[in-house]
């Protein structure tokens, strides 16, 4: 009997949207054992699930198989599928980062190697794991300690041995949560050379949910996820602007967008799991271009500098016409306003072009400094060394100003690669799709943009580079520093102008088959939420979410992060920080320049270049490149400064870098 597999294959290939379920009679099985080929039947169910053909089931009745004429079509919606065991890894049985591997169609094994746990599902802790579990404080406790007891921290921050020890702990405990070398990607849920070596993929912290699983989240929740547009409208869309209680400003908002768009550059042509940024980290391709070809178009080829133009005595990026380095602009943008920079999309928002201009000026400024030190160097060496210095400055500013602000910690973070030199740490990084998704911080955006007594709607603001020329960088920096950004967690704070982006984040997460919010919490050492109320910290949204998702274990990652109960007085909830921080710190410290052979003065042109990195700050970057050295920070001044509260030594951490009289002048000007 050659029938079953070949027949099934032929019928399926002929576009028969269904599964042929062959039920052999007992007698037949014994008479012609090859008929009841269970592997074949099972694999067709798998194939059918992939084709989402579960509504149609054709049943070959017992005995009918021999005569092809008698194939009866019976509609058995989904019912039959519940009989057939799903891929056993769909239920995500392996705990504590154990790896699930199928062994045959209906069995699995958990590989608990080096997880610190053992047992069928890696659930039994080894003794030392058990001890650690007892002693380890919860992330919320650690966060509480770091954001309170200011007096104690002021002392600790001043004792370098303690500060170094704590910083080393922060870096290692966070980065150990990131697989390095990377493991999965959106097409490979098992380790493979392809997933490791193909840099066009974002990596994945958790493998995708199998296509053959009963529900989009594995086995939990409903067969279909709620409409993504509905999720956005009900839970994410802003009703009234909710300012961030940590005082984050628009200066921070655009820094975030500018900085992250060097490594979040999805290749939508290939799909949401693919990136165009092969450097997978802080390589400053947003300043220098992703390819050598683009870089050469942007370079002046003299003294290491980038091309520029002078307008009203100030340096601005060149135009596309000058460089031939293409940018994305709508056709109505006039030629002289089509500025050309490393990242193709930075014409989108004047806030991005402002930072692009600041970094362009910084590059050319550092080139001048280096040329003073090294009149013997050619254009190439000046360019290359300046690029490394700017990478260093970026990491320094991101850790000590940007992450410092976001964390809300009284503990003073420190950028010092030497802290990791005697640790187990890999100097490499691969950007994860989940990191990209969680970084969709569009709630930061205000409703309108305020610049020097003028107010711009999104409509007027987007693709409008004339704003930058009209006001100049100085006014932009001053205004952005004063304007509050929105709170990210807590729900209902995505501005209507970008609600489509929020919907796209959800749709793309589904396309990439992300596991549930709770699986991600477990992956990053957090306890899964037990209820929707525990997630949101309130009842109204929780009830509606429960109705739509059915099961807290089926709640999706991205909407989960945005509706999560924020920590007290904070911009984010626990999950955003505990998942985001490991990706972030690994990406920053895993940079090549932080490795022992690179991290030395000669790499950066000597003491002077090294010093530029080690003293970099946001305020200094602005002072060195923006006329009038406007006061800036990543938060609005809070409380609003009055004569009485102006306190030069406490009002701002960037203080040591700026001229106090200037600060006073700036602040009183606002009164
Ligand atoms: C006026 C401001 C902004 C606008 C108009 C805007 C708009 C967009 C759009 C249209 C996308 C592509 C969505 C898609 O189809 O996948 C996107 C992606 C993204 N946005 Fe924004 N956005 C803005 C500000 C921000 C800010 C402040 C952040 C903060 C970090 C941010 C983070 C991201 C990230 C991480 C992505 C994914 C990028 C990628 O994968 O290539 N955006 N945004
Ligand atoms: C392991 O997980 C499976 C599936 O969730 C469950 O049926 C089984 O009882 C678990 N085994 C143990 C030892 O807990
Ligand atoms: C911190 O240390 C510096 C010198 O290392 C000292 O001048 C300063 O007074 C110290 N501050 C506190 C609060 O201990
Ligand atoms: C990476 O994978 C994608 C998708 O399979 C493929 O199109 C691309 O050619 C691969 N890239 C390399 C360098 O192999
Ligand atoms: C762009 O900004 C300029 C300068 O502030 C403003 O006059 C103009 O109306 C804006 N353009 C659009 C299309 O809104
Ligand atoms: C400024 O802060 C310092 C240290 O906290 C304090 O000693 C000083 O009295 C404050 N000055 C003013 C004017 O509030």
Mean pLDDT: 88
The percent range for strand residues is 5-15%
- Got a strand count? 13
Share of helix, binned: 40-55%
Rg: 28 Å
Structural class: mainly alpha
Give the distinct bound molecules.
protoporphyrin IX containing FE, 2-acetamido-2-deoxy-beta-D-glucopyranose
Low-confidence parts lasting 5 or more residues at pLDDT below 50?
A: 15-36, 50-81, 640-671
Main sheet: strands, sense, barrel = 3 strands, mixed
Cα distance, first to last residue?
92 Å
Query: How would you sum up the global shape?
Result: globular
Strand order of the largest sheet: 1-2-3
Throw out a few tags for this protein.
671 residues; mainly alpha; three-stranded mixed β-sheet; disordered C terminus; binds protoporphyrin IX containing FE
Description:
The longest helix is centred in the middle third of the chain and has 29 residues, at 379-407. A 3-stranded mixed β-sheet has the order 1-2-3. The protein has a two-stranded antiparallel sheet with strand order 4-5. A two-stranded antiparallel ribbon has the order 6-7. 43% of the residues are buried. A hairpin with a 2-residue loop joins strand 10 (309-311) and strand 11. The chain is built from 28 helices and 13 strands. The termini are far apart. Helix content is 42%, strand content 6%. Helix 8 crosses helix 25, helix 11 packs across helix 15 and helix 16 (379-407) runs antiparallel to helix 25. With 671 residues, it is mainly alpha-helical. Bound molecules: protoporphyrin IX containing FE and 2-acetamido-2-deoxy-beta-D-glucopyranose (5 copies). One 2-acetamido-2-deoxy-beta-D-glucopyranose binds next to loops.
